Each structure stands twice: as structure tokens, then as C-alpha cells.
């Protein structure tokens, strides 16, 4: 199987091309560069879009706009290429990065997304004993977490990035592209403002 995987839910976009479990290439950039990254991954591997047998997309939680970009690209590729798509939680991908990982994604508004999935204030975080807090939220609230006695890798650690190759290894439920749904956790700002 030739799988294209990507996640645009956080402040970085990751993409990977994986053939039968072997990572052929991986990129980290900005969600606005996703299609260029996909094109570059395919060209570097000497493959074309028609060679893909599946697409895996990060479903969040995270940035509303970022998740919509990723889901739109996944649905477009799935429908146009006739391949099945799987969604993988960004939290699950982060958690798969290392043993005892506790994913913490910056949710803005003074909150973080954590397994559940839930949006909580940093003061409400209660990672399991011996856990390593990783992700954009762990970086943003590093000092707070360290003062609370939590372990947080250095800001430049690879563990803070939800690498798309991890999404590819976790994907199991492939199906029609239009059935993959985002994990929002909170209402979009526009809905809150209208209410």
C-alpha cells in the first residue's frame, strides 16, 4: 500500500508518504504549503498521485481552519483518485511518539486539548504519574507544567510534532472520504459569537 498521510491541526503541518510501513519521505511546514509538500513527496519518491492506495488525515483537535484545510484536501484526493481515507486523532498520533507520552495541544483561549478529548485550562491538567507532556500546548505552557512537577522535553524536541508517519501507522478504518469527520471539542468561534 502507498499511503499519503498529513496533519494540519496544529501550528505545523506534517505530511508523509509511506509504502508498506516504510517511510519514503516526510515534511514539516505550514498548512498553506500542504499541496506543495504532497507534490514534493510524490516527486521525490518517483510516484504520482494515481499510485496512492489510501489517504490518512489528522482529525484534530486543533485549529479549526487547519483541520478544515486537511480534511478538504483529504476528501478531494479521496474522491478524485477513488481511494479510501482514514482519520486519525492528532492526540493519538502525538501519544504514539514515545512511551508514556501525554499529548497536550495548544487550544488558544488559555486552554489546551488533552486526551478525552477535552479542552481544559493548564491548571486543570492532570497527566498520569510518570507521563511526558508533549505537543504545542506543552511547549506553550512549559514553565507552568515544570512548576507543577511535570516532565516536558526541550522546546526543539521532535516529540512536540504530530508527525504524519505516526498517523499512517495508526490508521485502520479506511472508508469513503466524506465519512471522515473532524474532532472539534469546542464550538467554532463564529458559532459562539452568533449565540
Q: Nutshell version of this structure?
A:
The protein folds into two domains: 2-91 and 162-194, ATPase, nucleotide binding domain (Nucleotidyltransferase, domain 5); 98-158, no CATH class.
Describe the fold and architecture:
This protein has about 200 residues and is α/β, with parallel strands linked by helices. The chain is globular. The protein has helices spanning about 35-45, 65-80, 90-95, 135-140, 140-145, 165-170, 190-195; strands at about 1-5, 15-20, 20-30, 55-60, 85-90, 100-105, 105, 110-115, 120, 130-135. The strands form three sheets. A five-stranded mixed sheet has the order 3-2-1-4-5, with helices on both faces. A three-stranded antiparallel sheet has the order 7-8-9. Strands 6-10 form a two-stranded parallel ribbon. The chain has two domains: about 1-90 and about 160-195, Nucleotidyltransferase, domain 5 (2-Layer Sandwich), CATH 3.30.420.40; about 100-160, no CATH class. Helix content is about 30%, strand content about 25%. The model has no long low-confidence stretch (mean pLDDT about 95).
